[in-house]
Amino acid sequence: MSSINTSTLITTKDISIVVPLFNEEESLAELHQWIQKVMLANEFSYELLFIDDGSKDASWLEIERLQKLDHNVKGIKFQRNYGKSAALHTGFDAAKGKVVITMDADLQDSPDEIPELYRMIEDEDYDVVSGWKKKRYDPITKTIPTKLYNWAARRLTGIHLHDFNCGLKAYKNVVVKSIELYGDMHRYIPPIAKYAGFTNIGEKVVQHQARKYGKTKFGLNRFLNGPLDLLSVVFMGRFGKKPMHLFGALGTLMFFIGFLFSFYIGIDKLFLNRSAKLIADRTEFYVALAAMIIGVQFFLAGFLAELIGRNSSTRNVYLIEKEIGEA
After folding, report:
1. Over the range 105-124, which residues count as b (16 or more CB within 10 Å of their CB) and which as e?
2. 20 to 30 Å CA-CA from 204: which of 212, 297, 300, 314?
3. d(CA 308, CA 122)
4. DSSP secondary structure of 222-284
């Protein structure tokens, strides 16, 4: 997690809208027009950040065209496709608005929700407000796994949201400057924010639109990556700064179990049943030996994790090919 001094935050707009995209050239003009209409109707000062995640179509040309028409449009283009988490992380770094709104570029998220999301952050003092697509227009192959992941996420994180992966979310600026995204962690930004100390997390039912252009960019790998990323988030949130608390405890427990078995077979051989078979021929001996070896390995894993964590200062680097505006 990157350190942040809240007193040095520079926010020049009411709202920063961060839109990650990959091959969405057909929808960008319509999305821009929709957002612009909502912003003008509510008299918001804003910036619209399009983060092109290495698109192969004419998405960047469309962003350049929109930027010439509207000075509020800014763009960043990656040299290659890094994924949605990388796009959001870069957008968060560039965002200057008091409130940061994220939404997808495929027109499935409605910009009409932005004013209420902004109000919830400003007036109700939420750190994060997550959208809830109560009525979805996705195929059943996507909705059923989503329900399962959301249930597991609620149980493991203690955050009672119905839709962790909704792309439409609102954040205080200080929240997005205090978290770091990598891999596919965009699915679990609310837990990451919670573990960073931002616990006032709310939810709002939002309108979900049917996809109008193109097709989904997420494949079957999300069914495997989703649960693994959830376990990573929970582990890093609870033990990222203190891995010895987990591995040391497991190691101590396993070593103690092995010691108890060793103590039992030693007492049994020396005092209770001297004529019994040799200790090395008993199953309990190998259980004790394995438990103590595993215990030592857990303890060493925790010790090494502590050393690595205290000496690591690396950050992810994403190669940016082009920028327009003041992004």
Report:
1. bbbbbbbebbeebbbbbeee
2. 212
3. 39
4. HHHHHHHHHHHHHHHHHHTT-HHHHHHHHHHHHHHHHHHHHHHHHHIIIII-TTSPPGGGSHH
Rounded Cα–Cα distance for residues 211 and 215 (Å) = 8
Instruction: Name residues whose C-beta falls within 8 Å of residue 159's C-beta, 6 or more positions apart in sequence.
Output: 153, 190, 191, 194, 201
pLDDT in tens, 59-77: 999 999 999 999 999 999 9
What φ, ψ does residue 75 adopt, rounded to 5°?
-140, 145
> Measuring CA to CA, which residue among 153, 164, 240 is closest to residue 195?
240
Provide the mean pLDDT of the chain: 85
Q: Which of 71, 70, 94, 130 is nearest to 20 (CA)?
A: 94
Radius of gyration (Cα) for the chain, nearest Å? 25
User: Are the beta carbons of 77 and 66 closer than 8 angstroms?
Assistant: no
Residue 80 identity: R
CA 326 – CA 94 distance, rounded (Å): 9
DSSP-derived secondary structure letter, 322: E
Res. 215: pLDDT tops 50: yes
Buried b (16+ CB within 10 A) or exposed e, 240-257: eeebbebbbebbeebbeb
Q: Which of 189, 175, 305, 155 is nearest to 239 (CA)?
A: 305
